[in-house]
Specification:
Elements: H1 3-12, H2 14-34, E1 39-49, H3 55-74, H4 79-89, E2 98-101, E3 108-115, H5 118-139, E4 151-157, H6 170-195, H7 202-209, E5 215-218, H8 236-251, E6 259-264, H9 271-284, E7 289-293, H10 301-305, H11 313-317, H12 323-326, E8 328-330, E9 335-338, H13 347-351, H14 354-366, E10 369-376, H15 382-387, E11 392-398, H16 404-416, E12 421-429, H17 464-473
Parallel strand pairs: 5-12, 6-10, 6-11, 7-9, 7-10, 11-12
Antiparallel strand pairs: 1-3, 1-4, 2-3, 8-9
Helix pairs in contact: 2-6, 4-5, 7-16, 8-9
Length: about 475
Amino acid sequence: MELLQWIQVLRKRWKPIVASTFVLVLLALVATFTATKSYTAEARLFVATTSQTSNANAFSDAQFSSQRIATYTQLIKTPQVLAPASKALGFKIDKDLVSASSPLNTVIIVIEATDTNPVRSAYITNAISAQLAKAIQELETPVGALATTSIKATVVQRAAPPEGPSSPRPKLNIALGLILGLGLGVAIALALETLDNTVKNLDEVLAATGKNPIGIIGYDGLAEGQPIATMSTRSARSEGYRAIRTNLQFVDVDNPPRVIVVASSLPGEGKTTTVLNMAITFAQAGHKVLLLEADLRKPRLAQYLGIDGTIGLTNVLANQMSAQEAMVSWNRGQLQVLASGPIPPNPSELLGSAHMRDLLTQLREEFDYIFIDGTPMLLVSDAAIVAQSADGVILMTRFGKTTHEQLKRATEGIVSVGAHLIGPIVNFVPASTSGYGYGYGYGYGYGYGDSKETGDSTPGYGDPEALVQDLAKS
């Protein structure tokens, strides 16, 4: 993974990094301010030889005492030192709270004692120091009444009550919490990125479908409340739909698709809003367009367009009325809409009937383009059935949600019925995803060249009230 990819992953997965860092720093703060304060006092012993012999012997004695220092530091936890010191203080000294060490190449012994009370820690340190000096003297004295030792340990620095606690250490704890939090967060981010098998770049779309995307629609948080984006000529989403219009006209120059099914792998990938806006963009270019709702299970087109959806395709297929009688003219005749009508108990049978095929053949003669709102491919077979009578299928793919396997299975479902996959459209693409393969080559009018049609004469509707009033007049 290159440095740029690392940066992109960290930018994308910043939430677990921030969360883990916050949690561990918070835990470090809680542990710091709830922990019992401990104080450590320090005393020093100097170990020397008392020999008055020649310089050579003096050097030998000094070297001898230096070598014995490591042994003397081990005496501090023995009963010979702890018992008399505890008796002198009037309470038992915990051996785990005292320690002794010696700086390298010195004859100094540093004695430390830790306690929750600073004064008591100094008392313990001084008692231990005095008793250790005495124990060294006794152990190094040869047996015999007149014998004297050549080793002497002297307390050169008595312990004083420490001014501040030795633990907890707030700065160190916070720094450790910060480092551990960042490290854990980065590990979580990388693990999530590795385990994430959703579609995030063009190469993955091409590998799963065998087709390059014919369009990219950016993420817009207002899309759910405002599904009709193409009525505003200045929005980024409307530019994306117009780029798709241009790309569709160049997919097959000799035989461009005119009857198009828009399907998805699963619900929530934006097929209905996409087919709706695609139909509007083609109508804005001066084409005669029919928008047909073939999702007979959860129809939404009528709701999005604000028209009556109780009469529509199912009435026509049941021979209750003609297609022309069931159609609704939208936005002053700019677009003809054939809604779903009453939800039937057998959608697949109706859509696969000979009457449905004859209907599409008839409508093909009347309209330049027919856009069909299909169904999720992995849930029901309705879209695949309709696709057999259409010129091709556009397969919606949701960035960061549709998995490679889902996209591949949906593609196989289209191909297995003999239908033609025109290409996928990647939806809900965040603005800052150029590093994932988006934004350079297929987005917002750069796929096969900018749109050159001049038929977009419909004024933009920056004011929603103006749009409602205009639709009411039609």
